[in-house]
Amino acid sequence: MKPASSLHSESPLYRVILETRKLFHVLAQASSELSADTGITASMRAVMEELFPEAQLTVPEIARRKNVTRQHIQQIVNQLQDSGLVALADNPSHKRSPLIHLTSKGVTSFKQIAAREQALLTALEEEFTDLPLDETAKTLNEIRTYFSSPAWQEKVKVLKSLRPITEATIP
Asked: From CA 47, how far away is CA 61, in angstroms rounded?
């Protein structure tokens, strides 16, 4: 059996997906290191970014935007609330799903993290001046948009119906 990383190595799309996964984990670690002295994790920062500066969103709304489970976001919101970085407000549209918003402490903390990140990005841009970053961002956006589309959902349904994965079909 081939190692997982070489199963689709001839596919340029797979290589982009694999590198994106690896980059996601490296960036999450870098974000945690950059804000370690604040007690704010990469996941907490990501939720704060959705709320900055004045958004009021429910846990399910944040989860949909992040394409993760409601339970995952609820855990992060609980941590942020315990740290005094977010507060809950009554939601006139839904009694059981409060609106989450940054507190003044949360806004200040996020501004400090963002300023630190901007300083780092400015310094790092010199390292990547020869790379087509605008084109890379456009390409990644197109791939992400496709994987969020109804066309992708339909393709998944069709592929699943053709050959279900069972122990017998796994090499």
From this structure: 11
The yes-or-no verdict on residue 1 having pLDDT over 50 is: no
Pair 52, 107: CB distance under 8 Å: yes
User: Per this entry, what is the length of the chain?
Assistant: 171
pLDDT tens digits for range 6-50:
667 689 999 999 999 999 999 989 888 888 999 999 999 999 999
| Alpha carbons 111 and 60: distance in angstroms, whole number | 25
Rg (CA), the chain: 20
| Sole residue written with tokens 């609820």 | 74
84: left (phi over 0), alpha (psi -120 to 50) or beta: left
- Name residue, tokens 């507190």: 103
What is the pTM (predicted TM-score) of this model? 0.81
Going by C-beta distance under 8 Å and a sequence separation of 6 or more, which residues neighbour residue 143? Answer: 13, 16, 17
Is residue 77 within 8 Å of residue 86, measured between CB atoms? yes
